């Protein structure tokens, strides 16, 4: 009887220790995010994890349309940060995410190699044989760029899976010009901005929390964190456009 009692006591102690370890264990927040956010999100990750040491951010970067499809097909994620509202909106309509919130803005730029600059959109299109942009069906920047390229010149198009691929194509000389976000240009010393491309709609990034997420509270905290003034300033230092005061006040 005494031996049995000792065994039960040991098991009980192990259970308590195990339980205590579980409460203090690190939470993992998996985020599918637009490729154009990559550099900045690596900085934001450090800031957020300093304040929330029990939460680890894990990112999956790619074209917003591709990430949308992955989520629709059941890919594991807690949050979706898209470069366009239409992608989060599509998931919201399917009850896969809980609403959409804008968290930063951007601008579309025409770029050229720094050693082969051209003077304007019109002249660049005329002298270029390869025009790089994101695949319009899956990359919001590619869809925005499409309206700037005359239909008769679209046969010159070279498509990238995301804006970072487009930037690389121009850097390596595989394309004569390309359409990327302003935030992408800040990461490169091999390209120059020809001009800003005016878009018919404001380029706003939206975030949404997946309905199936088991980390909704951490996801809500991170969404609020992205909209803090000091984090908006960090975005600005990386080429993004901070939200207006009115946009900041919007709540889910």
Automatic annotation (TrEMBL):
Q: What start-end ranges are recorded for coiled-coil regions in this protein?
A: none
- The signal peptide, as residue positions, is none
Which keywords appear in this protein's UniProt record, sorted alphabetically? Metal-binding, Signal
The family this protein is said to belong to:
Belongs to the bacterial solute-binding protein ModA family.
Can you say what this protein is called? Answer: Molybdate ABC transporter substrate-binding protein
């Amino acid at each position: 009887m005494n031996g049995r009692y000792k065994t039960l006591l040991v098991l009980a102690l192990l259970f308590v220790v195990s339980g205590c370890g579980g409460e203090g264990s690190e939470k993992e927040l998996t985020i599918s995010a637009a490729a154009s956010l990559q550099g900045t999100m690596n900085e934001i990750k450090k800031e957020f994890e300093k304040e929330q040491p029990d939460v680890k951010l894990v990112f999956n970067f790619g074209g917003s349309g591709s990430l949308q499809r992955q989520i629709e097909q059941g890919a594991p994620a807690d949050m979706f940060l898209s470069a366009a509202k239409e992608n989060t909106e599509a998931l919201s309509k399917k009850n896969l995410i809980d609403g959409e919130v804008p968290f930063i803005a951007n601008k579309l730029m025409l770029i050229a190699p720094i050693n082969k600059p051209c003077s304007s959109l019109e002249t660049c299109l005329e002298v270029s044989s390869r025009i790089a942009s994101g695949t319009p069906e899956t990359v919001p920047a590619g869809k925005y760029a499409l309206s700037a390229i005359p239909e008769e010149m679209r046969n010159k198009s070279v498509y990238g899976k995301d804006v970072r691929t487009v930037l690389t194509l121009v850097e390596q000389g595989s394309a004569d010009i390309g359409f990327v976000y302003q935030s992408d240009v800040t990461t490169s010393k091999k390209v120059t901005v020809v001009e800003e491309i005016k878009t018919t709609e404001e380029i706003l990034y939206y975030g949404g929390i997946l309905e199936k997420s088991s980390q909704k509270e951490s996801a809500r905290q991170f969404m609020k964190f992205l909209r803090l003034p000091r984090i908006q300033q960090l975005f600005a230092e990386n080429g993004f456009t901070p939200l207006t005061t009115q946009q900041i006040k919007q709540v889910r």
